UniProtKB/TrEMBL annotation:
Keywords: GTPase activation. The keyword Plastid does not apply. GO terms for cellular component: cytoplasm. InterPro entries: Rho-GAP, Rho_GTPase_activation_prot, RhoGAP_dom. SUPFAM superfamilies: GTPase activation domain, GAP. The keyword Acetylation does not apply. This is Rho-GAP domain-containing protein. It comes from Anas platyrhynchos platyrhynchos. The lineage of its organism: Eukaryota, Metazoa, Chordata, Craniata, Vertebrata.
Length: 254
């Protein structure tokens, strides 16, 4: 067996490792040089919108447009889960994007000069439940929910108010206090979900069903409460309120 390294050898290895770590360029400089690119999933909303020069992430727009084009009349849209492995493949495809074109399509690093670009119209993503699953995953993976943690308790307290008119007024005030990307993205998504709800006689997605699906996705506490059932019911009710009083809560476009 080879002899164990002596203490002087260990010290030399530690010293070399220390020098390597000190000299290693910071993540920000690698991103600025384009050597490392922030991903889409799991990226802070503000940073993603700033990078894309928009107030609603392009991936959110792509998914919503796909659903409105070919999914509004699909039974259980957003409620039925798509194939998880295909959703993860779609996520990987989006996260590997090299650049975003003016029409909102993603260009892969391996295909910088090719005309063939990522699109949700590709047959690979033909199952609309995969698209909706990826959109829900995008919102679940935000480092902070669309309704920031600091507003979770105020939202829940607003839902508990006994007067329905006061509920709407208080929620409207809270929504208006959201950071611009959060307000714009929430307004865009809720407007879309209102259009989904309008087709409830076909797709069976009533306001209550949409609340069940999106409550815990858009509005969640930083720490899980003692009673999950009570918390989730109020989260669902908050989304139902946004849908029922869209015009009053979102009076002006961003």
């Amino acid at each position: 067996t080879p002899p164990a390294p002596d203490s002087s050898e260990k010290k030399r290895v530690k010293s070399r490792l220390r020098r390597f770590i000190i000299k290693r360029p910071p993540l920000q400089s690698l991103q600025e040089k384009g050597l490392i690119r922030d991903q889409v999933f799991g990226c802070r909303l503000e940073a993603l919108c700033q990078r894309e020069n928009t107030t609603v992430p392009r991936f959110v727009r792509l998914c919503v447009e796909a659903v409105e084009e070919r999914g509004l009349d699909v039974d259980g849209i957003y409620r039925i889960n798509g194939n998880l492995s295909v959703i993860q493949k779609l996520r990987f495809a989006v996260d590997q994007e090299r650049a975003v074109t003016s029409d909102g399509r993603y260009v892969f690093p391996e295909q910088p000069c090719q005309e063939e670009r990522f699109s949700l119209e590709d047959p690979e993503w033909s199952d609309i439940h995969v698209v909706t699953g990826a959109l829900k995953l995008f919102f679940r993976e935000l480092p902070e929910p669309l309704v920031p943690y600091e507003l979770f308790n105020p939202f829940i307290e607003a839902i508990k108010l006994p007067d329905p008119q006061e509920q709407v007024q208080r929620v409207a005030e809270l929504v208006q206090s959201l950071p611009p990307p959060n307000y714009a993205t929430l307004r865009y998504l809720v407007a879309h979900l209102c259009r989904v709800m309008e087709q409830a006689d076909v797709n069976l997605m009533t306001r209550q069903n949409i609340g069940i699906v999106f409550g815990p996705t858009l509005l969640r506490p930083e720490r899980e409460p003692g009673s999950l059932a009570v918390g989730m019911a109020q989260q669902n009710q908050a989304v139902e309120l946004l849908l029922a009083h869209f015009e009053r809560i979102f009076p002006t476009p961003p």
